[in-house]
Design a protein that fits this description.
Elements lengths: L2 H14 L2 E12 L2 E12 L2 E13 L5 E13 L2 H9 L7
Antiparallel strand pairs: 1-2, 2-3, 3-4
Protein name: SnoaL-like domain-containing protein
Pfam families: SnoaL_2
Organism: Nonomuraea coxensis DSM 45129
């Protein structure tokens, strides 16, 4: 996914999910590459859910995102506290 496609993808999602919180579990950068594992906790239409994200990307020389690849998994939850608990209980959180 290039930068323009990422921006086009993100705009409508941000409009429909005004309430969110991001929990970064791991992130590493090496040269122009970045990898991160995080959980995005969102409220959508009165329901709370957690989205686990594995992100891999590359930066352009000017520092803008040049390339992005994401793997996601949605975890349903009843409320924000449950969303955070669900994200931590997936077996991937560090002890």
């Amino acid at each position: 996914m290039d930068r323009d496609k990422l921006i086009a993808h993100t705009r409508p999602i941000r409009k429909t999910r005004p309430s969110n919180r991001t929990e970064v579990h791991e992130a590493i950068a090496d040269g122009d590459r970045i990898a991160a594992r995080y959980t995005l906790n969102v409220q959508r239409r009165g329901k709370y859910l957690a989205i686990e994200v594995g992100f891999f990307g590359r930066f352009a020389a000017d520092g803008r995102m040049r390339e992005a690849h994401m793997l996601t998994r949605t975890l349903p939850a009843a409320d924000p506290d449950q969303a955070a608990t669900a994200a931590r209980n997936t077996g991937r959180a560090s002890a």
